[in-house]
Amino acid sequence: MARGDGMLNHDLLPDEKGPQDECGVFGVWAPGEEVAKLTYYGLYALQHRGQESAGIATSDGARINVYKDMGLVSQVFEETTLNSMKGHLAIGHCRYSTTGASHWANAQPTLGPTPNGTVALAHNGNLTNSADLADMVRGKIEADGGKVRGEIAQGNTTDTALVTNLLNGDPGQTLEQTALELLPKVEGAFCFVFMDEDTLYAARDPHGVRPLVLGRLDRGWVVASEQPALATVGASFIREIEPGELIAIDSNGVRSTHFAEATPKGCVFEYVYLARPDAAIAGRSVYESRVEMGRVLARENQAEADIVIPVPESGTPAAIGYAEESGIPFTHGFVKNAYVGRTFIQPSQTLRQLGIKLKLNALETVLKGKRVVVVDDSIVRGNTQRAVVRMLREAGASEVHVKISSPPVKWPCFYGIDFATRAELIANGAAVDEIAASIGADSLAYISEDGMIDATRQPRERLCTACFTGDYPIALPDDSRRGKNLLEKANQPGCEPGPDADLQSVL
User: Fold this and answer.
1) What is the DSSP track for 138-157?
2) pLDDT, the chain, mean
3) Calpha distance 398→370 (Å, rounded)
4) Closest by alpha carbon to 79, among 43, 48, 45, 36?
């Protein structure tokens, strides 16, 4: 395993933490193929789902090899590393942390022993009963004479490490049998992709909160968080893995078992922002959903303006839809630096005061003297929109009307999106006109909840809208038994793994 140097990613919009998904997962079973490189390219296609760390595990049938580190997929892996990772199956992971701090010990895939070998696990989502699972792990440790096994002993403080530990089942049980016993006891949102030395597994929670798909290669099979990752590696889309389903892939093909009854509650925010525009979820194009959200936004919230522009890239489809419906010309008001994703170099206070704009710059020739409608997908704290409006003003826009293609975000997510806390959500404590004044806009309008849902073409009862409504479809534990730092004894953001900040010390 590779260890990072401890530096954390620095977001390029200062002081703003927008909605982030926990991670992307990928798995491939393909004898005769370069599975490590296929996984690398699959993770590349899923990079938008997590930028803090990345990792790949491969198996040649005799042993599992894991390589992971902090940073983007392209920063973590070199061709020589991938060439050394031989085998016929692999899993991969790119992470944004929602349980456990962002440091190397919490990177995935996780690795742990089983009665018959080893298990490697990658996880997208967030578990709501981590405290209960920790109690189960504590019982295993006590029954084992105090022996702490797997990555918990190395400082891992994630819900993924708990599940990995619990997949070490009773002697005589296969990994598949252990998983089928364990999965009904795991609550919350999860898409697990895991493997032993010979078999690839994938499981999706009974609510299907996060997407997970199955694809076919000429000589193998692929599972991934989103369809674009299948297309990237040349796999054809077969179907979505169903809520409450466990699939296993080995030399005998694909077999499926349902460990729980499906009660679908897919995350509506996947359609709004999280998934790639070229993905499809439950048969509905994400891009078409976003364009339709823009059309609905225009019907619900017209504005007198000269141009419609997006906040790139997430606001582009909705801005196109808004322009189509309103008849106001669509154009681009910002230039985005295509080579900027994340940087490890944090600017000093002096450089911050210079107003360095690494991501976006406004086009004065397009904006000067114009009444502008600017479309974005969501507002969390409001800092991003405040910076956007300021740039438009500085470029000479005469009016700035902000249109948002989702309703006000008023509630935190406990199912895999790392929003700000409720106290930090600007819409939780201010009316729409007050938010408009706070961000410096002439006007502000959000799409209605009904309009957003209609754009997805999904029945309301099959969608989770908790971040907008506070209606949580999966029961939540008491405050004392939930939270990002639940499994860390030192409950301080950014703490490094060590004797006072690891799950082993909590257990």
Assistant:
1) HHHHHHTTT---GGGGGT--
2) 88
3) 5
4) 36
For residue 172, give every residue at least 6 positions away whose Cβ sits within 8 Å of its Cβ, in sequence order, or none.
115
| Catalytic site positions | 23
Closest CA to 158 of 100, 98, 93: 100
Tens digits of residue pLDDT in 139-161: 988 888 888 877 888 888 889 99
Mean pLDDT for 350-365 is: 74
Q: Residue 324 carries which side chain, given as an amino acid letter? A: E
Decide if 211 contacts 241 (C-beta within 8 A). no
CA–CA separation, 119 and 109 (whole Å): 10
Using only the alpha carbons of the chain, give its radius of gyration. Answer: 23
Collapsing DSSP to helix, strand or coil, 446 comes out as strand
Let me know if 353 is exposed, middle or buried by CB neighbors in 10 A (0-12, 13-18, 19+): exposed
Structure tokens of 282?
């439950």
> Do 23 and 50 contact (CB within 8 A), yes or no?
yes
Here the tokens at position 465 are 């809208």
What pLDDT does residue 498 have? 42
Phi, psi of 119 (to 5 degrees): -125, 140
Give CA–CA dist 507/141, Å, rounded.
Answer: 8
Contact 123, 23 (CB under 8 A): yes
Among residues 399, 381, 234, 213, which one has the least CA distance to residue 309? 399
Dist. CA 61–CA 63, nearest whole Å: 6
Identify whether 109 is preceded by a cis peptide bond (ω within 30 of 0). yes
Alpha-carbon distance 375 to 305, whole Å?
A: 13
Identify the bridge partners of residue 26 per DSSP, sorted by sequence position.
92, 224
Of the candidates 312, 68, 305, 57, which has an alpha carbon nearest to the alpha carbon of residue 194?
A: 57
